[in-house]
Amino acid sequence: MNKIILPLSIFIPHKTKEDREFKLNLNIYRNTHHFILNKAKELWKEVVQKALLENARLINGLQPPYHFTYTIYQPSGRSFDVSNVGAIIDKFTADALQEFGLLENDNYKNIPMVTYKFGGIDKVNPRAELEIVEINQTGVCK
User: Fold this and answer.
1) Which of 24, 32, 75, 86 shows its CA 20 to 30 Å from the CA of 126?
2) Which residue segments constitute the domains of the chain, with CATH numbers given?
3) Which regions of the chain does DSSP assign to beta strands (E)?
């Protein structure tokens, strides 16, 4: 299975105060200063790179187009919008995969299908699991 595990937030270091948690969520994204967003994307690339190293066979041998499925496991039973979390994780992850040269482009030709799902509550290990599946010529996932 072609799956990587991603966190739901990252910590942005500060020189003079405590590290700041950046939760990957559309509501937070739209209200965050571009300087912080750029730093968050840089740190996210490191997270994706580490996750790919742990699953080196993930993209090797797969050919686009791909179906990306993000399964979100929340830390609590608090209500949330799955697509608010999934959209930002997808945006940051697809951009990172493109920068690493694993995707020629992150447009609809390479990723025509993206799914966000609620996976449940996991207080110990909240996360997003990204499964990447190759789509064949007929549009069916292999």
Assistant:
1) 32
2) 3-134 (3.30.1330.70)
3) 3-6, 9-12, 20-23, 66-74, 113-121, 127-134
Residues 84-127 have pLDDT tens digits of 999 999 999 999 999 988 889 999 999 999 999 999 999 999 99
- Count Cα neighbours of 138 within 13 Å in the Cβ-side half-sphere: 3
Residue 124 makes CB contacts below 8 A (sequence gap 6+) with none
The model's pLDDT over 40-78, given as tens digits with 9 standing for 90+, comes to 999 999 999 999 888 766 666 678 899 999 999 999 999
The model carries a pTM of 0.89
Cα gap 9→140, rounded to integer Å = 32
Phi and psi torsions of 83, nearest 5°: -70, -25
- Residues written for the chain: 142
Single out the residue of 38, 57, 27 nearest to residue 95, CA to CA.
38
Task: Give Cα separations from 38 to 45, 88, 93 (angstroms).
Answer: 11, 13, 14
